[in-house]
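Let us work through a complete example step by step.
Step 1: write down the sequence.
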Amino acid sequence: MSTEMHAARSGLPLRIARWSATHPWRAIAAWFAFVVLAVGLAVAIPATQTTDADYDTGDSGHAAALVRGAGMEAPDAEHVLVTGGTAAERAGATASLASSLHGLAGVAQVQDPVTSPDGKASLVSIDLRKDTDDVSALQAATDAAQEAHPELTIRQTGDVSLDDAINARVSDDLSSAETTSLPITLILMLLTFGALIAAGIPVVVALTSVAATMGLMAPISHLIHADSSVNSMIVLIGMAVGVDYSLFYLKRERAERAAGRTHADAIEIAAATSGHSILVSGGAVIASMAGLYLIGDVTFSSLASGAIVVVAVAVLGSLTVLPALLGGLGRWVDRPRIPLLWRLTRRVGTGAISSRLLGPVLRRPVVALVAGTVVVLGLSAPALGMKIHTSNLATLPADIASVQTYRAIESAFPSQLAGVDVVVPVSASSQTDAVRADLEELAAAAGKTSDFEAAPADIRIAKDGSVAVLGLTTRYADDDPRVDDAVLHLRDRIVPATMGARTAYVGGGAAQDHDTTQRLHDRMPWVIGMVLLLTVLMMGLAFRSITLALLTCVLNLASVGVAFGVLTLVFQHGFASGLLGFESPGFLVNWLPLFVMVVLVGLSMDYHVFVLSRVREHVAAGLPPRLAVQRGIADTSGVVTSAAAVMVSVFAIFATLSMLEMKTLGVGLAVAIFLDATLVRQVLLPAALVLLGEKAWWPGRIAVPAGVRVEEPELVTAVGGTV
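Step 2: predict the structure and record it as tokens.
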């Protein structure tokens, strides 16, 4: 296909690349100025983090809003657990500790020490002042008590100390991932290009895209508050797409130079072909991520915003600074050469690796399609039993001291089981006694069931009398699936039976967990439908083919099914948990499956669009469908392999982290991308294209050049040339 034909189809990338390549130092300076300005925004405009109000959902959200409005929020608390020794020794230690805690910074009240039902543990609870985020003085007092009583085990945990420990672990994990991913990505690029500068360019584009995005997210967070995990996601997605987009561009530019094109022509052809693919695939990722806004949850909205921005920035960098670097460096792009790797990359012919797999697929497409479908269905089957739940202590690393202490407290003190609040707005002070009586009746009714502890009614009334709250304790730990049934039983039966026509909301931690998970259940079909619909529209507009759009949708569903099946098998049922270093909580953290789906659909479109664009080029050049498929996939197999290797490597690093949510995300995406790039795109896709023939481009027809008719030869096992 001529450069003019490419220009007609993809004028914008070509025009941008032509200007950047002919004014390289201006374009490079403009890009780095943009990155510096974006990073500066984060310093000038501090990010706004999510608040408790951002997570309000359903009935529990109404309850939480009423409690906050009445100033009845429970204060953050720290707990000191004392075990071992005799009862007298524990009593002396807790009394001494409680005395030392009075008057410390941030301490509002020290509760009287309590003893566990089995008499083997004591607990001192400390209510903190509002907005206290430093409990180092309390920890010092706890450490001093431990030193003074070596015969006892004295440990501290709580809202602030647990959050601090988790944030420190997330920071360490993210730093480890960044430190590990850079050399691995650089090594993969060296194996791909055999030259240091060529290998470094994709890494530089990806890193600057990530840095710019983190800066831009600071002002954006004032519109959509930033979730704590958004930076981890930006690194994860930004490194993957930033490297891949650059890889597509560089590979095509190098292939055109190897075919005898001038340096300038090679850049323009790469812009018109790979640049077009980058625009389409970037749009597909953005469209997929936009589906997360339908959930109406701050976590998903924050993650979607971060992903959309980092992909948009990576696309911009690939279309501007990348051709500028190629134009400015000229043939220095292939310097300095790594002797052995350089010879290896030049000698490996196009399609040399994929031909062994591709040959049988094209000879027997029906068999390949059926066999591939059976494998996909088998790997997807475990997803039918998928269970999701909000994160809790069971999903936190057991080696964090605060987590161990919290688990010990839950085990020793039944009162630490999942709690539920019934919140009632009181319209007039004259109704307070009537509301209290109804809540006492409700507490008695709940205590007679098998779901709630029987105890005197724990009723609190707001100072202004506007809100009444009844606290109930379930008989289950917060990760017990029966908690959801208890919440529903309370809402659907006990509250209506005892409160009558009075408005009452069931809230508290257990109810909030249930409502959040239920919202995901309810909106997941809408999100999946929107993502698939937008994918169909993007592919239909890009290739003018309904058939290809629907085929892409089916293949994406296959990839998602495999990802869900692997996630369920590994993290719900615990397969290979010892190898991966985690304990299965018996469920998947509720936000992960949906997020994995949209990320997978978006990222897999990178090489899907790249492959189909190359096949289309060969069809437009006059090749018969089967030969066009063979050459198109052979031409792109090296790029697809390298792109998938980068993604799998980056995601696999996250699988080594200690936080279960990051580990789940890493394993799910690494396995899914690997199978998607091999089984789905290298077996199912070519088999389907061969069987569809010219119908693959329906309802449009690709105009082929007039001239000598191209006959389809016998299927060959390799095609010469270099990547």
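Step 3: interpret the result. The longest strand covers residues 121-128.
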